[in-house]
Request: fold
Amino acid sequence: MGGTALISVSDKNGLDRLGLGLEELGYTILSTGGTAKALKQAGCHPTEVSDFTGFPEILDGRVKTLHPKVFAGILAAPTPEHRAQLAEMELPEIDVVVVNLYPFRETVAKDDVTLEQAVEQIDIGGPSLVRAAAKNHARVAVLVDPEDYEGFLRELAEGEMSLETRQRFAIKAYRHTAAYDAAISTHLPGLVEDGAPSRAAAVAHDLLMGDETTLRYGENPHQWGLLARSTPPTGLASARQIQGKELSYNNLGDATGAWRLVWDLPGPGVAVIKHANPCGVGLDPEMDQAFLKARATDPVSAFGGVIAANRPVGRSFAEKVVEQFAEVIVAPDFSEGALEVFAGKKNLRVLQAERANETSTVVKAIDGGFVIQEGDHGWDGENRDVATERTPSDAESRAMELAWRVVKHVGSNAIVVGAEDRILGIGAGQMSRVDAAKIAVTKATEMGHDLEGSVAASDAFFPFPDGVEALHQAGIEAVIQPGGSIRDKAVVEACDGMGVAMVFTGRRHFKH
Reply:
């Protein structure tokens, strides 16, 4: 077989096997500096690029591969004219280019990195080699990921590499260089005096650097769907699927919502999500009991839902979960007993995931572009103000904290009714706040919950007293809300007249 391969990598993983494999197939290897040294230590016989070009590495290694002899060998098309020119100049065709770039992203991730250190990790020759090889993928195979080495060698050993494989490598290479440039444009401004990282570039970098998975379809069967992971992958996107059917677009959305919610809870707990909204939340040190409380919020809506727990779960939890159909279970870990129970439901998707990302960015498509915002994170009730004559009791305060942590995960307009250890009713996605209040009360009473002495949370201010009046008529005695309405005084006066305690947080939690 034979041919010429150029190898210049910062990530030396798998390099020994790649070099030996290429030489076994008759390839001549051109290499640079540290890569050539590593190849020689592995028993390979590379030719230094400087010996090949007759031009030494200069400027502390800043100029190594930027030479016409190198790029002519890469860019030559498989035509008689180009091959004749190479033959006249006694230059080989370079068939394989293996390059990964200086570790810029890893460097700028260090707390004490300087601008000078970051600049030195901006690769020049590497991206040029990658782009040249990817452009000429009709003849050249370009590899930027050590994970591809084994498959590459297998196909090469079987005969000529297919155009389809070279095209796949080329696409991956262009994504690699695009993500590299995105990382530079994202992080470099933050190292310049008075500079700030580009948030849009940061999102582009995260999406470009990560891998992607094609989904069966999108929100509906006639829509295509794709999962693009950020880098490094965290939270739900990096979850390990232990069993079950392929995850759908809707599964991933609901699982993300449930996962973010449970890590927002004040203690060990379980949440159930259905169609992007919570339909049950429970707190308990024992996960099986937390689940029973969560399911009891609205057992009808919980059917076919996505369940998340913020602590490892065991057999008892699993036995209770499988009593009713569920789409997805997410938890930090599962006991062997739990997995044995879940194995009896082969379609149930079981995900083991790392803690939800508390610094996540929210990206939403609009017509012709995207809007980007930071996630709505953290507990903001420490600086709350009691607006009414009556101060909430300690028990009411604990219940209000739970309801307030949950309401921000509910589509607006949202009202959540709850107790200290569970949510009792949820009114989601209503155009008027009073309707959200009425729905929360109706759902709770339909499920048999006693609302006497319970509390409520509202994701935004009450524009009129009618919402709190509807809540009080059902038995709610304390309400937490942002405040900020021009009619706050009227709402507070109505609460005082009913003996309802009201707390203002000063922060709204719309969710759309």
In short: DSSP finds 20 helices and 21 strands in the chain. The domain at 385-504 is CATH 3.40.140.20 (Cytidine Deaminase; domain 2).
